[in-house]
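Is this the right way to post structure tokens for a design question? Let me know if I should format differently. Anyway, here goes:
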């Protein structure tokens, strides 16, 4: 991404922004930082808008298998998260609310959604491997719900026993040793290693992990999120140089995740970017208003009061 000012051009690659490149942006003046922020925000919004268009273009299509179904579900989640991040990107003007930690939490969530999406839906998996991952997904869903609602789930129930049968019949899962099999069948832990997925999609784990851990500090209120707020002049809800710098870093990270997810989704739905949406914006709005019990007459009546 190129950031222009009156004196020279600053070249910021996605990796630069994602790695909190203080050496690149540290020499910029505050007005230049603002211009850089606006440039990165504009590029992020373009990526988020494209993701939303592709998501809507892949809706309303009958799924022909697990990959198609779950890609639609997960890409919708990615697109919605991208829109939520956008809501937290203020304008550089007085009385705007700045909260990088909230941006960081949602960007981390978006990145995690992309990893799950790639783990399940990326191209190049053979049938046995992909089926194994869907079995692991359903076991993880079962285990997660059992931990939340133990009174509603039991190990002897039919759906769980069916998943165990599928597990034992899958050639990939049959190779698991006893310990790994026990953990997977309990379904209480994430069924993949993030670094393995990153390598599968051609992303170097170390730089990704560095930014991910930084974002996680803000997600979980780690000390990095608050211990130096005063001396670093950030985290108080107002516009500062570091608020903009950190937000740019997160947005560069998010842009990379969005672009990778878009590429995978277009492999599954090649015409999604040009296909008319299943429902128009007006139809969606009308459906929501009707489902929420807000008729047009009631809205007019409310405005007249």
């Amino acid at each position: 991404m190129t950031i222009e000012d009156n004196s020279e051009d600053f070249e910021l690659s996605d990796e630069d922004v994602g790695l909190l490149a203080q050496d690149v942006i540290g020499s910029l003046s505050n007005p230049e930082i603002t211009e850089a922020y606006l440039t990165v925000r504009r590029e992020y919004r373009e990526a988020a808008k494209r993701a939303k268009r592709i998501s809507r273009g892949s809706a309303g299509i009958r799924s022909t298998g697990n990959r198609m179904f779950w890609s639609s579900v997960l890409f919708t989640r990615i697109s919605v998260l991208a829109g939520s991040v956008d809501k937290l990107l203020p304008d550089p003007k007085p009385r705007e609310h700045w909260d990088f930690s909230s941006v960081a939490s949602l960007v981390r969530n978006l990145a995690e959604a992309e990893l799950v999406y790639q783990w399940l839906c990326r191209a190049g998996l053979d049938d046995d491997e992909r089926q194994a991952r869907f079995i692991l997904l359903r076991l993880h869903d079962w285990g997660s719900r059992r931990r939340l609602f133990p009174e509603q789930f039991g190990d002897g129930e039919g759906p769980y026993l069916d998943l165990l049968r599928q597990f034992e019949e899958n050639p990939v899962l049959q190779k698991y040793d006893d310990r790994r099999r026990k953990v997977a069948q309990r379904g209480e832990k994430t069924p993949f290693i993030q670094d393995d997925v990153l390598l599968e999609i051609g992303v170097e784990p170390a730089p990704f992990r560095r930014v991910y851990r930084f974002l996680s500090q803000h997600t979980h209120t780690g000390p990095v999120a608050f211990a130096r707020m005063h001396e670093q002049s950030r985290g108080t809800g107002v516009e500062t140089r570091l608020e903009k710098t950190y937000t740019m870093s997160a947005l560069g990270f998010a842009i990379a995740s969005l672009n990778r997810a878009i590429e995978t989704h277009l492999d599954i739905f090649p015409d999604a970017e040009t296909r008319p949406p299943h429902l128009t914006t007006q139809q969606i709005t009308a459906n929501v208003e009707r489902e929420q019990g807000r008729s047009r007459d009631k809205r007019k009546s409310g405005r007249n009061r």
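Format looks fine. Someone answered above. Worth noting: Residues 30-57 form the longest helix (28 residues). The chain is about 65% helix and 0% strand.
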